[in-house]
Amino acid sequence: MIIAIDGPAASGKSTSAKLLAEKLNFLYLDTGAMYRCIALSIIENEIDIKNESSVKKFISNFKLELKTVDGAPDFLVNGSSVSKKIRTAAISKKVSAISAIPAVREYMVGLQRSFAKNNNCVVEGRDIGTVVFPDAEIKFFIIASVKIRAERRKLELQNIGETISLTELQKDIKARDKYDSERSHSPLKKAINAIQVDTTEMTIDEQVNYMIRNVNLKK
Ligand code: CDP
Ligand code: CDP
Fold first, then answer.
1. Phi, then psi, of 108 in degrees rounded to 5
2. Which residues contact 108 (CB under 8 A, 6 or more apart)?
């Protein structure tokens, strides 16, 4: 069974995907983290993203693995764990442009399907219910106001020692929403049969319980 969770930045996808996976004993796949991993590596290797053949050559040598360490997923790029390095505001600013490159998306979609193969899986991202797993048994589309999403992200960044103003965060979130929704390849949009969940005024518990109730109805 595949549970697809899509929605814009900081709407609450990861939190609910992680908890749903735990409660249901499913594999948890964070596809945003996968795009962050390739973005980090492209930046570190100073690849010119406007040069299609450089990007393709880079992808042919790029190796991304998913491991579970102490019950939590960990991504390894060419053998090294990058799960901490991919959450910075600097990566958030650049990841959308990199994830809009068709060759990057093709590579990632193939990998996402192979990671989820033969598993019960909660998969979260932007195009999971529309493109990666259009036949997913249950699909959620999570939304929340820009203001609350910026406040949530601020708290998260504070926890990793980054200070960034709410105004700046709101600007970044709006820019990323626009980029992700307007790109020609696999834009962020609600699948016709997805259940929309507005988490603006929901606690995490309320959100997860609501989603679990819907999953149980489908099972
Ligand atoms: O955690 P946050 O919502 O900030 O973003 P994320 O889920 O880590 O995703 C980072 C970026 O990767 C998004 O802004 C998208 O540009 C891209 N992404 C995508 O294009 N397709 C996906 N399935 C998942 C993420
Ligand atoms: O994965 P996505 O970027 O959509 O969002 P997330 O990482 O699940 O959530 C962003 C932040 O909002 C996290 O720090 C969550 O703890 C928080 N959150 C919240 O406070 N209330 C909710 N109902 C959902 C998420």
1. -70, -40
2. 31, 34, 35, 38, 99
DSSP track, 191-211: -TTPEEEE-TT--HHHHHHHH
Cβ atoms of 123 and 29 closer than 8 Å: yes
> From residue 139, how far is each of 4, 77, 192 by CA, in Å?
5, 29, 9
C-alpha–C-alpha distance, residues 94 and 90, integer Å: 7
| Residue of 15, 203, 209 to mutate, ligand 2, most atoms within 8 A of C-beta | 15
Helix (H, G, I), strand (E, B) or coil at 122: strand
pLDDT at position 142 is 98
Distance 197 CA to ligand 2 centre (A): 13
Q: Encoding tokens for residue 77?
A: 């790029």
Instruction: Say how far apart CA 155 and CA 189 lie, in whole Å.
Output: 27
DSSP strand pairing (27-30 vs 195-198) = unpaired
Measured distance CA(56)–CA(35) in Å, rounded:
15
* Residue segments in the chain with a per-residue pLDDT below the cut of 50: none
Give dist(CA 128, CA 154) in Å, integer.
26
With a Cβ cut-off of 6 Å, ligand 1 is lined by 9-10, 31-33, 35-36, 92, 95-96, 99, 125-128, 176, 180
Ligand 2, residue 17: give the atom nearest the CA.
8
